[in-house]
Structures are given as C-alpha cells and as structure tokens.
Design a protein that fits this description.
single chain; alpha+beta; Uridine Diphospho-n-acetylenolpyruvylglucosamine Reductase, domain 2; Uridine Diphospho-n-acetylenolpyruvylglucosamine Reductase, domain 3; Alpha-Beta Plaits; seven-stranded antiparallel β-sheet; 16 helices; about 35% helix; globular; D-2-hydroxyacid dehydrogenase; catalytic activity; FAD-oxidored/transferase_4; FAD-bd_PCMH-like_sf
Length: about 475
C-alpha cells in the first residue's frame, strides 16, 4: 500500500493526497452524519489527466476507487465501505467552466463544478441551466450526472440525462474517453454517454460534461393552491397542462402535515391561507412572451380551477420576493423533518395517473400496521416523483425504528404493485442495493451485471454500490 500511495503523491502532489485521520474524516461521513466509511487515502486531483493517472494506479495495484463530488447523496453512493482499502477520489478541484457557446446553447464544465456555479455562469451569458435541487449550493455536476438527478424543473426540462449532450469519462483501466460533443443528433453506434449517466460511478468516472442551455424566461409566475385531495391535484395538473402548455415548469405537491411541520419549526412562516387544507400544489410558469402573457395564463387557469371546484383557494405571487416566500414552504420541508426528528424516507416514482390511488392505499396500510404514524408526503407531482416519508407517532420511542424494514416493505411493495420505481432521483448506492434485487427482474439484473463485468472486470469502480 505504501508504494501505491507514494505513486499517487507523485501524480497529485503531497498536499493533495490526504492520509491523516482528521483530514480524511469530512470525506468519509455521509451527508446526514448517520454512517461513515474508511479509506486508505483521499486523492484530490486537479485535472482529468490526473484522474486518469490515479485510476491507472488503482488498476495496477488492484485498489478500489470511490469517486465523490459534493458528498450530498442520500443513498451512501459516494462513501467507501469500512474495509479501509479504497482510494476516495474527490473531484472538487475539477471546477472549471471550460466553455460557453451561446449559439449552440451549450456549456462545457468540469465534473467538480458546483451546480449553483453552473447556473450562475449560464445566467451571466443570458441563458438558463434549469437543473435545480435543494443541494445546488454544494452538489457537483459529476454527482448530478452519476445519479441522474431530477429536481423541481424535470416536468419541463427533464432529468440530468436530458440536459447532457456529451461526457468526458475515465474508464476503469485509466483511459480518458473524450466524448465532449455538443451534438443533439449523433447516431453513430451505442450511446456511451447514457451508459455512464445514472451508473453511480460503477462503470467509470465522469470528469467533464457538455450541458444544454435554454433561453431565460421573460416572466416567471408562481402560485400556491389549496386542494381537497390528491385526486384534485391530478385534475389541476391536467387542467394546467391544457391551459399553459409548455409554460408549466414546476408542479409540487405538499400535504397538510408538511405545512404543519414547516410552521412548527419555522414559526415566522405564516400560512398564506386563512384556514388549513388537506393538500397544496405549488406551480410555476416560465413564459417566453411577456409578463402580461404569463399573468393572463395564470389568471385564466386559476379562475377555471375555482369555477370547476378543482381548487379551494389560491395565492399568487406578485413579486420575486413573494415567489421565493412560496417556494420556501416547499424547500423547508426537509429541514422541518430533520428538526422534528428521525423519519423513514422513500424517494419513489409512479405513473402520474396512479399517484392518488397509491397515496390512499399506502396511507391506509401503514396506519393499520403502525397506528398513529405521520406521513410526510411531498414531491414533484408533475413528473411522478414523491418523497413519501414516514414519521413515528408523536408519542413513539426510539424503538419505532426497529420497524423500518417492515415499513419499507409496505411502501416498496405498493410502489411495485402500482408499476413504480423505488428510486426516482436519489439512486441506489449501497442503501437500496438489496431492495433492488427484490424488484428488478432477474434478466434486468443479469444484463446490468454483464455490462459491469465487461467494463470493470476487476470490480474496482465504486464496489458495493448499485450491484
């Protein structure tokens, strides 16, 4: 191992190869502080070439390598196991904006670029990079692509996969594949780009990407609407699509308990409604015509929804500050959950048409099995992604979490029964690996294993994750 570490120092320099326990610690603990791993060292390369050299050394010395971006993941995808044999490869120094092409509407970036910095670089060029999620101030593009991140604008712009045109990747053998092509049409064989996106670093290490840019909207309109049931939320989504078309950018669902939690832990936030309602939909329009056109679209939509009794009440933001205040209700839900205490999280996706039925059936099943559980249901209704989280009864003790496996089984079995997925945007990592074996077909698992074996026969790339 000492010969391997000496060789790594020659590549990155002694200051960028960390072996001291205190220096390693921040890289080895997952975001919520619940679990940690061990590593022989943390390497912090400063270029794609250095990444390739390090991976070649890992291949030569048979050392597992765990790539890490901002370490904001929620499924233990960027944390090594506790063997201490792996090299953790941090990509945070790969943080250059390489190029912006406003005619081709692309931006080429290093994988270690913080998502928020890419958004700002696009805005500085009068363009929009629409990927947006809670961790955007610390997550990296490489991590976003490795997990095929979603967020609040998937309804209109798609997941990270849809926002990427080309990649630069280091293979498990340490070769550097330059696929940084800003082409929207390239029908020349297998799509290697899509193979690496969503692979969670198990097939190679993404070091750079060409990303799509979009025109900045001329107007943004935000509204919070109160609804009686999730069925009404689906009716509203259908109505909004009919009235607003492509202008509909975000459509978020929040239950009454979500709003209650936020107010409890952020008492300065007062509900914009005079009385509580069972469900709330936060919707946002991006309009490319004018402020007046955006306002007219939203006013017509809300008027129709009220007339048809699809919604019970509505609040419309009339300024950027008011829009931010409405979004704060959605963004504070995870913070309020953390302040309330531990809960059992599920990142699931379902056919949009079946979401209301899933909520109804699964709520009932959980209440029968564990009376008094509190269900924190929110998420990106417009693309079928729910964060269906289970909080213990108010008077429950710590032993409630002994039932986590049983609760997961109820939720995930129902997800499967409703033709959904147990992971919508967080990935599989190590946390859901065993669950994947239960719900993927044997053939799917075989095909995935064959790809892994073909590209990484030594199983050195992020071992123990996904497969």
């Amino acid at each position: 191992m000492s010969a391997f570490l000496d060789a790594c120092r020659q590549v990155v320099g002694a200051q960028y190869l960390l072996t001291d326990a205190d220096a390693l610690a921040p890289y080895l603990v997952e975001r919520r502080g619940n679990l940690s791993g061990k590593a022989c060292a943390v390497a912090r390369p400063g270029s794609s070439a250095e990444v390739a050299q390090l991976v070649r050394l890992c291949h030569q010395y048979r050392v597992p390598v765990v790539p890490q971006g901002g370490n904001t993941g929620l499924v233990l995808g960027s944390i090594p196991d506790d063997s201490g044999t792996a090299l953790l490869l941090s990509l945070r120094r790969l943080n250059r904006i390489r190029d912006i092409d406003t005619v081709n509407d692309t931006i080429t970036v290093d994988a270690g670029c913080i998502l928020e910095h890419v958004q700002q670089a696009a805005a500085d060029a009068d363009r929009l990079f629409p990927l947006s999620l809670a961790a955007e101030g610390s997550c990296t593009i490489g991590g976003n692509l490795s997990s095929n991140a979603g967020g609040t604008a998937v309804l209109r712009y798609g997941n990270a996969r849809e926002l990427c045109l080309g990649l630069e990747v280091v293979t498990p053998q340490g070769e550097l594949w330059d696929g940084l092509r800003g082409l929207r049409k390239d029908n020349t064989g297998y799509d290697l780009r899509d193979l690496y996106i969503g692979a969670e670093g198990t097939l190679g290490i993404i070091t750079g990407a060409v990303l799509k840019l979009h025109p900045r909207p001329r107007a943004v309109r935000t509204a919070l609407l109160a609804l009686p049931t999730p069925d009404h939320a689906l009716q509203l989504l259908t109505l909004t699509r009919r009235h607003c078309g492509a202008a509909l950018t975000g459509f978020e669902l929040m239950s009454a308990f979500c709003m209650e939690l936020v107010h409890r832990h952020f008492p300065d936030m007062q509900s914009p409604f005079a009385m509580p309602h069972a469900q709330y939909a936060l919707l946002e329009l991006y309009d490319h015509e004018s402020e007046q056109h955006a306002t007219a679209l939203l006013e017509t939509l809300i008027g129709t929804a009220l007339d048809e009794q699809t919604v019970a009440d509505a609040v419309v933001a009339t300024s950027l500050a008011q829009s931010a205040a409405l979004w704060q209700w959605r963004e504070c839900i995870p913070l309020a959950q953390a302040a309330e205490g531990r809960n059992i999280k599920h990142d699931i996706s379902l056919p949009i048409s079946r979401i209301a039925d899933f909520i109804r059936v699964t709520d009932e099943a959980l209440q029968q099995a564990f009376p008094g559980v509190r269900l924190v249901t929110f998420g990106h209704l417009g693309d079928g992604n729910l964060h269906y989280n289970v909080a213990p009864p108010a008077d429950a003790g710590a032993d409630f979490f002994m039932h986590q496996a049983a609760i997961n089984r109820i939720v995930h079995d129902n997800v499967h029964a409703f033709d959904g997925s147990i992971s919508a945007e967080h990935g599989i990592g190590a946390l859901k690996r065993e669950e994947l074996l239960r719900y993927k077909s044997p053939l799917e698992l075989q095909l995935m294993s064959r790809i892994k074996q073909a590209l990484d026969p030594l199983n050195l790339m992020n071992p123990g994750k996904l497969l």
